[in-house]
Amino acid sequence: MRHGEATPMQADDASRNLTSVGQQQAEKMGLWLQATHTPTALLVSPYIRAQQTAEGVKKHNAFLFEETCSDIIPEGNPQIAADYLEILIAMHPQCDTWLVVAHMPIVSYLVDQLSIGNMPIFNTGAVAVLSYDESRHQSQYLSIHAPANI
Fold first, then answer.
1. Contact 125/87 with Cβ under 8 angstroms?
2. Quick one: which of 82, 115, 116, 75 has its CA closest to 100?
3. For the chain (length 150 residues), average pLDDT per consecutive 10?
4. SS3 for 108?
5. 70/55 Cα distance (integer angstroms)
6. Which of 35, 43, 69, 83 has its CA 20 to 30 A from that of 106?
7. Is there a domain that residue 137 lies in?
8. Total Cβ atoms within 10 A of residue 124
9. Where is this region: Disordered (predicted)?
């Protein structure tokens, strides 16, 4: 998931907040996730706008596992992020649906790392859905959903 709409770019990118639209996007997608996928694990960027997006989603979803991860910041390395996510999945078998809340461009690159050849562009608040086969360490890209389209 890409974070919701944020305030304009500034010197300290990590401190940008969600706008009121971004907060609404996070809550709307939280309701959608609850109704369609029921995520049980959450991996979120330490940047304020991603943390605020995760809080909006958490209003409608209960997570068995939550972690803030500095590998999923905008300039993060998608291979490291994908490897770390796969390790977490293996370590937490009780969690069958994972939500990663991050930023462009890393969310697109992460999807490509998990499902080679698929690099969707995320609108703010959008969620890409992948099906992960842990035994093969491969994902299949299924779809992307934006707040404006649900």
1. no
2. 82
3. 95 95 98 98 98 98 98 97 96 97 98 96 98 92 97
4. helix
5. 17
6. 35
7. yes
8. 23
9. 1-20
